[in-house]
Amino acid sequence: MNFPHLERHRNGKYYIHWTVGRRSMRESTRTDEQRTALIAFARWILSRYSDGDGTGDAARRRVR
Asked: According to the lineage, what is the superkingdom (predicted)?
């Protein structure tokens, strides 16, 4: 998996892009404002890589 990143599409909305294996994935932040998109991106990262108690142990397990 590569590092997730934000991209602004032609429609003006920001999307989170990442890959799983060789498959490209994307998810909309549902906003055209960069600040709001960055907040949505941060929340997305925390929800995906956190184990729920804020320690980030789940992210370390995934990396290994």
From this structure: Bacteria
pTM: 0.74
CB count within 10 Å of CB 6 equals 15
Q: Left (φ > 0), alpha (ψ -120 to 50) or beta: where does 18 sit?
A: beta
CA–CA dist 39, 32 (Å, integer): 12
DSSP state of 16: E
pLDDT, tens digit (0-9, with 9 covering 90-100), for 21-63? 999 999 999 999 999 999 999 999 999 988 765 555 555 455 4
